[in-house]
Amino acid sequence: MARFSANLGFLWQELALPDAIRAAKAAGFDAVECHYPYALPAEAVRAALAETGLTMLGINTIRGNVEAGDNGLAAVPGREAEARAAIVQAVDYARAIGALNVHVMAGKASGEEARATFIANLRHACDLAGSAGITVLIEPLNLRDAPGYFLQTSEQALEIITAVSAPNIRLMFDCYHLQIMQGDLTHRLQTYLNSIGHIQIASVPDRREPDHGEIDYRHILHVLETLGYDRPIGAEYRPATTTDAGLNWLGAFR
User: Rounded distance, CA 233 to CA 117, Å?
Assistant: First the structure.
């Protein structure tokens, strides 16, 4: 039976993170994940996770100066100090709450210097995270939602992972982003399964509940079951109305 993780960066946004964790448990999710939990003391998040028995699958490094257009820092030449401070922050917070993964956000950049910067920062992240038993994730984003983002395709991500050459770096396979950029999701899942650290779902093109749109997630779930993938799948979508009103897909997909 498929298992699912509630991405609390999008779901139950009206609630404080500890209460959103409790809401995810009550709704029947098997795990949780989030984006930027840093405004809350780690102790409060850890307590909610312990109370519910849910695992925090992952958190993101901060985007940087959002008002100035930042969307991550790790591939941006000249901002290595900021990028590494963000990595330290994320790994420390993940360790404190027992999170399994840290998504290191690349940011807006292009070219060989950006690639070299990203690889160097990821090696640093893998060293820090590895000592805490944490996996580093990198995620291709689509250029419609994230214009100028450095990491855009699964092939590019796999090349970066190979270049970093660390045992604890994996691909975040977001079906929404990769369908927009590349499609051919079944083949990509089959081909890259051993390099995938986490999978996320949302409808395409509207990034709503995953029960409609151009991706048949029942087929995707069947493919993953056939491949033996048994980790919780991240529900990272923007609810059409309220989170609770849109959860019929959860029971149907099980």
Answer: 30
Three-class SS of residue 28? Answer: coil
The residue from 14, 33, 67, 139 that is catalytic is 139
Q: Spelled out in words, what is the top-level CATH class assigned to the domain 4-253?
A: alpha beta
| Residue pLDDT, tens place only, 196-236 | 999 999 999 999 999 999 999 999 999 999 999 999 999 99
pLDDT in tens, 139-182: 999 999 999 999 999 999 999 999 999 999 999 999 999 999 99
Which distant-in-sequence residues (6+ apart) come within 8 Å of 43 by Cβ?
A: 96
Active site residue 159: no
Q: Which residues contact 88 (CB under 8 A, 6 or more apart)?
A: 128
- CA 77 to CA 206: how far, in whole Å? 33
Give the 3-state secondary structure of 57-70.
CEEECCCCCHHHCC
The single residue of 14, 113, 155, 236 carrying the catalytic annotation is 236
Q: What element of type H or E holds 170?
A: strand 169-174
Do the beta carbons of residue 21 and residue 8 sit within 8 Å?
yes
Residue 80: what are its φ and ψ, rounded to 5°? -60, -40
Residue recorded with tokens 């330290």: 88
Dihedral (Cα; 41, 47, 48, 52), 10-degree rounding: 160
The CA-CA-CA angle for residues 8, 14, 16, to 5°, reads 65
Q: Where are the domains of the chain?
A: 4-253
- pTM for the whole structure: 0.96
